[in-house]
Amino acid sequence: MQALQNRLEQLENATGSEMWKILKASESDLRQDLSQLNLLKEDKEKHIKKALEEIKSKKEDLKSQKLAIESLKIEYKEYIEAVKREFERNGLDMQKVVGIFQKILEDSLSEKKDAIIATIDSTVITSKSTWHDLKTPVKSIISTISGDLELRKMLQNHLEHFHDSCEKIFISNLWSLFQNQGIPLKSLEETQNSQKFLEKIGEIFEFSTDLDLIFPGNHQKSIDNLVQISISHLENLCIDMIDKDKRDGDADFEWILESGKKWARNLKLVLEKGVEVMETLKMEEKSRFSAIFDAKFVEFIGNLTRRFLKMNIKDPLIFSKMSTLLRRFEENCEFDLSNSDIFEPIYEPEFISKWILFEVELYTVSINRLLSASSNCFLPLESISIGNPKNSQWAAEITVFVEQWITRLDSNIQNFGNLEIQMTFYECIHALLSDLCSRIHSISKRLESEATWSNDVYLVMNSIWELKRIVKTQTLTWPISSFELERAYENEWDRLCGMIIDYLNEDLLDRLEISICSNYGDEKIKTMNSTFYHILKCLNNVTIKASRPSRSVLMNLLVEELFKNLQMRFEKWKSVCSMTVLEHFYNQIYSNLVPELDNLEKEGHWTRGNEARSEMCRLDALMKVYCSKN
Question: Where, if anywhere, are coiled coils annotated (predicted)?
Answer without folding.
Answer: 34-89
